[in-house]
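DATA SHEET
Item: assembly model
Revision: 1
Owner: S.N.
Input lines:
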Amino acid sequence: MERQPRSGCPINLTLELLGDRWSLIVLRDVMFGNRRHFRELLGGSEEGIASNVLADRLRRLVEAGLLTRRDDPSHKQKGIYSLTEPSIQLVPLLAAMGAWGRRHTPASEELSVRAELLEGGGQAMWEAFMQELRSLHLGAPAPTRSVTSELRAAFEAAKAKKGMTEAATG
Amino acid sequence: MERQPRSGCPINLTLELLGDRWSLIVLRDVMFGNRRHFRELLGGSEEGIASNVLADRLRRLVEAGLLTRRDDPSHKQKGIYSLTEPSIQLVPLLAAMGAWGRRHTPASEELSVRAELLEGGGQAMWEAFMQELRSLHLGAPAPTRSVTSELRAAFEAAKAKKGMTEAATG
DNA sequence: AAATCCGATTGCATGTTGCAACCAGTTGGT
DNA sequence: ACCAACTGGTTGCAACATGCAATCGGATTT
């Protein structure tokens, strides 16, 4: 019952999978925010996704092989969502989106720090991040470098700086 | 009357601009297919965009500063659409999309050749391509390297090869 | 036993999309 | 001068997708 794609162009097919307003937001939160449960994804991000839309996107992403869902042993109703190798390989795409958005949209400085760091780190940093995601989501051996920590540190520093500026001007 | 963004995250803002099924298809055809007129964009691509949707996307993209429109001196009704510096800087994003789609979607081999070449060429090739686009769309001096020609040659070779295979197996 | 948390589902209003028909102005051929 | 083809759209309509608030029954916590 699944309809056929509009064309075999790789850009088009990627767009048919991810070209909507929420799918990449969900993957972003799983990837960069390490949100793994429904409720974390529902309330965690600033964009405010509706619960029915989130349920629909999670179902679609699992169906497309970009997420897997397993039961949470600590809570019979909870599910834990994990990235897969294909969605981990979206790191360069999300990095490119962040880099473009930082330059060409009115992105907030605070939220742009991580995009800037990830852009500057280049392919070496993306690879390290992907290795770390494989460790977190697929059970691969943990790498030595923690890009997650680097990103968090940069974000915290930006928040602290912003707080200082506000205190000084406020 | 324009509503405010859902958040200041650069990924989210990029998604709010380009996160639909057609905007990037239109930009892809202008960028890689050098389609500059309404009718070329309407009939040229395989995906078959509807005229009202195309009109809407062109209007939005011009409004967002990703395209400009000027009158065609050879025909009083025709408009010529050109890329802008922001949309030219989408080259790395489209390259990443093509690279991902080539690996993780059932993209046709024929249409994947250009994505593969663009991925392998790396940042140096993207820069050369962007310089060429600046020459074609913004009147910048023409660069020596023509990535457009390289992409076209690779595509034609793939088509020829496909034709041979079909002749041999058919 | 009561309150809260969990991942959804339902109903409804609104927005987006696909599709075909249609439009008036422009152009080139005869 | 005439006409057919072409230009960049617009209109109407049906189907589908999305956003939002309220709600659900089961599981867990207090």
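QC remark: Residues 37-39, 42, 51-52, 54-55, 75-79 of chain A lie near DNA strand C (CB under 10 Å from a C1').
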